[in-house]
User: Fold this.
Amino acid sequence: MDHDRLMKDLREICRAPEPERKEIFFQGLAERGVTSGRPTSISHGEFILRQFLYIGKWVWLSSAVLLLFITWICYGNNGNYPFALTPLLAAGILVETERSFRWKMAELEYTARFSLRSVMLARMFLVGAVETAGLLVVIWAVQPRFSYSFGRVFLYMMVPYLSASLFGSVYERKHRTDNGWGSIVICLLSSAFFAAAPYCMSSLYEEQFAVVWLAVFVLLIISLGSSVRRWFLEMEEPAWSL
Amino acid sequence: MNLEEQYDRIYKYLYFRIHDRHTAEDLTQETFLRFLGSRTYRDENRQMQYLYTIARNLCSQYYRDKTIEYRFDETLDITLSEDFEQSVVERISLMNALQELSQEEREMLFLRYVNDVPIPVMSRLYHISRFAVYRKLKKILKKVMSEMEKEGDHGS
Assistant:
């Protein structure tokens, strides 16, 4: 049997009786003023804001608690230790992202309207933006407690946070079904590393190394962007079940 | 997107899944009411995908509520009587071949070749790449052909 014949037979087999109430239905819609058939569109900003509701409350709560804890530690004159706490902030975004992948089915209808990539990117952007904004407020509030400039405090806070985000995102990309524990461990290890680093290299926070911190910061931003891009390109992979 | 044209296609899809004219039409109307009632919508290129997703979810809900199982062969007698000419044997063998497919495979075949759903829409509907949709369809057609040939061999 050739292809065209097969398709013809398939259409015949799957033929359905004519719908009976179509005209009445569309008349009813017209009477109610629903005739355009074009649901209201929303802006990108509104779309991103709507994602607030879908992000776990514990993410916002844990981030807020951690930011307050960092502020409190900074006010306690604890040297450079507060900088080592920022990687823990990244755990929220990583575990939330992992959770969304794990429960992809629950979001079926929502993602059908916006595509999974848009939803995931919006959530990553939201959590990342709110956490970064929170960190900036903390940096602004605690900077006078340090002998460093605002820029340096910013770098010392952001580099550990971005490094945990980068390594966590690489890990999550490769292991998507471990309930997020891998990311938490990565954040803890990253935190431990930055807490121990000054003991191995006492000049780490000296002014001469500020350029190195800046270079690492830029490198981390580029790497994180590249990692997220690869993540999104590979997003269809788990469904590849031929 | 022409809503009236889509109404026919969604109805056809639901009839294919449910095999009951009235229920299929009820669910078609419910699909459109939900679709039109949705006040938040961003990407207009995805309207068709959204329609099929709602229809598919309603269909799953219908089967869940009724606690009955999907049976493809319920349609066979009805459709057979429509055109009883020379290709009856081939159609019977095609229907038997379709019964050998999984529900998802039958659905993919229906969406692509009966309802003419574009590949990009199917790709988003099944959360797989376009290339994967092509390969799956090719594999399903090959399976159907081979089942039909097997049937033909047995018949002769």
